[in-house]
């Protein structure tokens, strides 16, 4: 599978233990690569297991980061990469808050997981993000309803480096077969819409970022 072009991964990809699972994953990689839209497989920590060329192309323009590259851990990229908002439109409401909601659910299920604990510590080091997580997130979920935190079927804005797509929308499709589920993996595909088909959301203004982390206001 394609890695970040010209970059070395900061950590190895998680690999299942059994030979049979590894063989399945290798064949599944060919399927993911055949998809023309950005597609990624990650584990319960959002550590990336597989990603295709379309995924790498979408995020290929972001600068290096020691812990928050999209091809390493997608949650960390959304929350902590200072350039995440240049690719993920309406970054705070459409991406950060839903991902924080999924993270909170993962912490409830895997509270002792060291990877998740590390992400929680990094959230706590950002006072604004920590306040959004502990206080703003429950209020936001009550206000928008539980459906707003679901990935599958959600339509969210992105900014693609290819002018054919440009500033557009994608529909997130969770298409995880049983075999992947049993390994603890999830597959997410971003079905891009051509700019002309994109649903109008009004003008989108770029949001400035703080040094070292994507900007998130307390909700």
Concise overview:
The protein has 219 residues and is α+β, with helices and mostly antiparallel strands. Helix content is 38%, strand content 13%. α4 (91-109) crosses α6 (127-144).
Description:
The protein has 219 residues and is an alpha+beta fold. 38% of the residues lie in helices and 13% in strands. The chain is built from seven helices and five strands, in the order αββαααααββαβ. Strands 2-1-5-4-3 form a five-stranded antiparallel beta sheet, sandwiched between helices. Strand 3 and strand 4 form a beta hairpin.
| Structural class category | alpha+beta
**Helical content class:** 25-40%
Helical segment tally? 7
Note the beta-strand portion.
5-15%
How far do the termini sit from each other? 38 Å
Shape: globular
Unreliable runs, pLDDT <50, ≥5 residues?
A: 1-10, 202-212
Q: Could you give a short account of the major beta sheet?
A: 5 strands, antiparallel
Number of strands: 5
Radius of gyration: 17 Å
Chain-averaged pLDDT = 85
- Sequence of secondary-structure elements: HEEHHHHHEEHE
User: Strand order across the biggest sheet?
Assistant: 2-1-5-4-3
């Amino acid at each position: 599978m394609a890695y970040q072009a010209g970059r070395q991964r900061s950590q190895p990809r998680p690999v299942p233990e059994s030979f049979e699972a590894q063989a399945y994953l290798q064949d599944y990689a060919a399927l993911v690569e055949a998809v023309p839209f950005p597609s990624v497989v990650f584990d319960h920590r959002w550590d990336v297991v597989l990603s295709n060329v379309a995924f790498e192309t979408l995020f290929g323009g972001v600068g290096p980061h020691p812990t928050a590259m999209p091809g390493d851990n997608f949650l960390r990229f959304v929350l902590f990469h200072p350039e995440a908002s240049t690719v993920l439109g309406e970054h705070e409401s459409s991406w950060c808050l839903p991902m924080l909601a999924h993270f909170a659910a993962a912490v409830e299920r895997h509270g002792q997981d060291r990877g998740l604990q590390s992400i929680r510590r990094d959230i706590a080091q950002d006072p604004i993000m920590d306040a959004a997580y502990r206080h703003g997130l429950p209020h936001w979920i009550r206000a928008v309803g539980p459906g707003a935190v679901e990935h599958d079927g959600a339509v969210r804005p992105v900014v693609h480096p290819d002018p054919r797509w440009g500033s557009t929308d994608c529909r997130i499709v969770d298409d995880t077969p049983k075999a992947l589920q049993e390994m603890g993996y999830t597959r997410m595909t971003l079905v891009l819409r051509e700019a002309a088909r994109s649903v109008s959301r009004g003008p989108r203004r770029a949001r400035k970022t703080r040094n070292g982390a994507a900007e998130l206001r307390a909700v």
